Amino acid sequence: MKALGVRGESRWLETPGLHGIMTSEGELASLQGCAREPVPRHLRRRIVGEAIAGAMSGQAVTLTTQNFQQEALKAPTPMVVDFWASWCAPCRAVAPILDELAAKYTGKVRVGKVNVDEHQDLAVQYGVLNIPTLVFLKGGQEVDRVVGVAPKSQLASKFERLLT
Fold first, then answer.
1. 20 phi and psi, to 5 degrees?
2. pTM to 2 decimal places
3. Residue 42 and residue 123 share a domain
4. pLDDT of 12 above 50
């Protein structure tokens, strides 16, 4: 499955037997015309999630239940963990800011992303009730948290505090 791009509320998609534009209503609009076919909910989340993940710069690490301990808690560098979901508009708003900060702080602060739909146990473990939630970890311990969308300047200052 390959996401060709993200534009507004639609995702351009290319996948075996399924290609076109995913609308915000969860329909797949054909590239050849206006014909629409519904996409099963489980596939819809996966397609939209992959489209969003494909839009990321590649700086962020995908965190799962299986790799969270090693990648986030035992990592020698501080980490910002973004709890998000593909259907969450505020999550999509904060993603480019995190990508930019991840690129700026490469080697100093890592950014990890936890999809709460796929890894609910991690969301429960960290008491995530609203998304996006950014958890700032240093030495495997939570030192700060931001719930909701925050300005880039505020997030940058929190990244800086992780380094002190």
1. 145, -145
2. 0.66
3. no
4. no
